[in-house]
Amino acid sequence: MSNRVVCREASHAGSWYSASGYTYCGACAAHAYKQVDPTVTRRVFILGPSHHVPLSRCALSPAEIYRTPLYDLRIDQKVYADLWKTGLFERMSLQTDEDEHSIEMHLPYTAKAMESHKDEFSIVPVLVGALSESKEQEYGKLLSKYLADPSNLFIISSDFCHWGQRFRYTYYDESHGEIYRSIEHLDKMGMGIIEQLDPMSFTNYLKKYRNTICGRHPIGVLLNAVAELRKSGLEMNFSFLNYAQSSECRNWQDSSVSYAAGALIAH
């Protein structure tokens, strides 16, 4: 029997970090990470969408350690064991884990925000599949007890609108002026609905406009977790702190990705 520790490498370092993702979304994401309090946070749940493998449920990592350019992050094996016991989770392969960027893009930020307490916290990465409404509700209910604990921080990974022919999404309402203004209006409509913390309204918005929000299912899980906690009287509010677009679309050949950063606070 080998006691080899399974590590997930920082597979997108040097490509996505510098040349792609952070160039566009970095400054926006920082507005959310500025809210993190490392003195109370002991566990960081990171929910990211699956971009590469078809998944109808949620999946957990086979790794014990996630490497980052700053320092290694340790997966909370106790919470993982509790989640396994529910029978609701699949195990992703290490290859799937390293191919996926949605969770990894948040790891250096997490490491930086928690740097002053780096030996005192663990992470709980969860890859979220293309969940049905009832599954979003089920996972939301399951994770709500963890969300209620002030020592747990939840990070939800998502972009907003992917607009352009290469994304096969070209919704345009001319009454808002230039294309990029129409995109902003569409995104901010969705952001306003998320701030209401009503999962059904968000689902209806997605059905109506088909906005290409890649983390719609992780967001749906969070909204359902909040709805569950509100039943028991826990008050929470969500507010967006920043919004950005990778470029301003003005004609049909253009394309852009939108980004938004927000924070959920429990009272």
Lay out the secondary structure:
Elements lengths: L6 E2 L7 H4 L1 H13 L9 E7 L8 E3 L4 E2 L6 E2 L2 H9 L3 E3 L2 H6 L7 H7 L8 E7 L4 H15 L4 E5 L5 E2 L15 H17 L3 H11 L6 H16 L4 E10 L10 E11 L1
Would you give an account of this structure?
The protein has 267 residues and is an alpha/beta fold. It contains nine helices and eleven strands. The chain has a five-stranded mixed sheet with strand order 6-3-7-2-8. The chain has a three-stranded mixed sheet with strand order 1-4-5. It is globular and about 60 Å long. The protein starts with 6 loop residues before the first strand and ends with a strand.
Shape summary: globular
Characterize the largest beta sheet: strand count, sense, and whether it forms a barrel: 5 strands, mixed
Regarding quaternary structure, what we see is: single chain
User: Helix share of residues?
Assistant: 25-40%
Family: Belongs to the MEMO1 family.
Protein name: Protein MEMO1
